[in-house]
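the three lines:
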Amino acid sequence: MPDSLAGRDIITIDDLNKDEIQLILNQAARFEELRQRRRKFDLLDGRVLATLFYEPSTRTRLSFETAMHRLGGDVISVAEAAKSSSAAKGETLTDAARVISGYADVIVQRHPAVGSAQEAAAGATVPLINAGDGMGEHPTQALLDLYTIQRERGRLDGLWVGLVGDLKHGRTVHSLSRALAHWDVRLTLVSPPALALPATVTGELRRRGLTVHETDDLTTAMSACDVLYVTRIQRERFADPAEYKRLRKSYVVDQALIKHTNPNITIMHPLPRVNEIATDVDDLPGAAYFRQAANGVWVRMAVLTLVVG
Amino acid sequence: MPDSLAGRDIITIDDLNKDEIQLILNQAARFEELRQRRRKFDLLDGRVLATLFYEPSTRTRLSFETAMHRLGGDVISVAEAAKSSSAAKGETLTDAARVISGYADVIVQRHPAVGSAQEAAAGATVPLINAGDGMGEHPTQALLDLYTIQRERGRLDGLWVGLVGDLKHGRTVHSLSRALAHWDVRLTLVSPPALALPATVTGELRRRGLTVHETDDLTTAMSACDVLYVTRIQRERFADPAEYKRLRKSYVVDQALIKHTNPNITIMHPLPRVNEIATDVDDLPGAAYFRQAANGVWVRMAVLTLVVG
Amino acid sequence: MPDSLAGRDIITIDDLNKDEIQLILNQAARFEELRQRRRKFDLLDGRVLATLFYEPSTRTRLSFETAMHRLGGDVISVAEAAKSSSAAKGETLTDAARVISGYADVIVQRHPAVGSAQEAAAGATVPLINAGDGMGEHPTQALLDLYTIQRERGRLDGLWVGLVGDLKHGRTVHSLSRALAHWDVRLTLVSPPALALPATVTGELRRRGLTVHETDDLTTAMSACDVLYVTRIQRERFADPAEYKRLRKSYVVDQALIKHTNPNITIMHPLPRVNEIATDVDDLPGAAYFRQAANGVWVRMAVLTLVVG
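prediction for all of em together
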């Protein structure tokens, strides 16, 4: 088992092997356990985190910044980097990251273009963490999803996980499913055919040994799964508004459906949710999505600590 | 006398009884007294404040953030929450506040819609402080106004306070006048009839025992009052531009007017001022508005300390 | 030699005499030397820096904020002050700075209008540092440029410094050239005639004893100079697009040109660079521009420490 990721960039979940993922999850668990006794650690005292957000993502940014504060570090932030004078003047992401490396000890970057994190990492002389590059990757989201599943169910091996919603465009489910392939997990993919997980991804998952079922029937899937990971279906993905209306309705998880199919199921969501989980689910013990969001802090504390070293 | 407001939301000034208001004012005074000896307290060390501003209000935000820093705490901030991706995707304020509760120990929210603070507080699992909800409430402004009056005049009981300007739309004067009703104060309301304090508010104030005079004559009011609280009259409130021009001129406080009517009067203003207080007033000993703004820090330190507990 | 600049505003580089500039450079060098042993100083513990940016300038803002954090202080920030409600309502910069003085111990302001820093300083009751006022001044940029030259070449006296690019509009080169006039430096100005340093500035420099050459030939200048300070030529400065194209090309510094003319030359740039320095220069030992950007932190730590006192 490694004991550090010092100096490492984290661009995609595939940058981490199973031992490294486990190291992060264990470190996150240690921070959460100590939560009651210690509000703040001095592990990163005197260190500076730069959050560079070329598109807004409030909760990812706040979650990283909270993590840094709870580690005793400081934060410099560009909430709207796309409007910065340097970007407007045509500076490359590579140059920008190199300059920011002169100020900060670690950089967290979000950008709408696939590959932008790699481009910035080429210039950065400090660790760079990808907090989302368009349809690309968002590795710390996958890590906090894994952490939440393990936390809610006590283990990862032997679980049956359902993914429902827009599995075609959802960056989150691509990263999570690849991360889950390190464990002995069974996946059920629930989506309308037009929004199915791309065949290249399901193919890769199967090659790596995962059992993958595909269906468009949410009710049956829920009966079988231990965990249901819900994602939003966006109107703009549909040519036919009537089709959107029909599907949006058929993939709503509410309290009645849970009680009918599987009262013990764990419900997750990367948030924000709109209509796909009814608010009457919030009070069920299996409604894990707000705890999932909060877990982002422990996981990001672990990542920051390990890459800054 | 209570000794804590631990866990309490502060949505409106009416959430606080007289003892609780007095507790806040006393705690604020203690912070101000210690100012010279101690720049920073560790009362909220390891705690995180989230400032969520769905409309800009630079000085309210900076004042809260300064207060948190001077208490040893950390700050995460969304200066333009309305443009956040989550709000754009249709997330409710209730969900947003619940997620942020996973990061922060206390939330300060500003939003243009009346009732938005209550909506967010329904989701928050940490104390939520309303920093303005449209035409609704802004309770810490009323508290710092009370603090300033007491600080400048040595007491609240027995004072004669004038409120001048747009008393109809001004959230500030509604909250302040209701807060003053806890003390033995005489109010004079100075405004053009079209911008008078709503009759429901004056009725409530009188029922609660306040003596309330109404006039449109600033000069006479100033001669009688110990404190004059000036607010801005906005052009857009008037159908007739000529009427606006006439009134704007008749409600300008300048050095000559003060010397003529009441050299000892205390002049307050929630700021920013535009033309309603001439800059030649700034150097008079009774010009309290910049001290009033600075008092926001002591009062918000007190509020943060007491609600986080 | 002075030992403090306590309470001083820094509006223009001319506010500082040679001893005071030297004091800042020495203090910056001390911070840089201690860098390995101490990540953070408690010199400004309990102090608050306010960064007020009425136009975006990400790296200047982040550099000041990093400096404040490394000094143990806290930061309150308005990244988009022009959109603040107070500015929109017509508040003067003088009033705004006076209010912020109630929160912060030092203010750093950036604004697009010449003279805006002076206007704000008139209201501020704490030190105000100009971080750029349009075509006016940006004194800490000149200081970090001086620091970098001294750091890269071991001295300032006796050097030959070339300035190339748009010398007419570049605030940076105006301030830097005036600052260099305190030392025994030879200047070569390289620009198309239409973008030459204004005659009033060259006249002043010569009166103050500087030897100043003017040319439009970059190659010859590079052969002679110890340091080449490159600035961007902006398309919008030219009436004739063909003229812009020709010039942009003739003022590109690349690895071949450096090896051909002067392999030991130090290359500087205020950044962001676009095309005027080829990326193949980045790996040369004389490519100092990223170190120059990083030096901003040491210099701003020195300035903040000395003015807060």
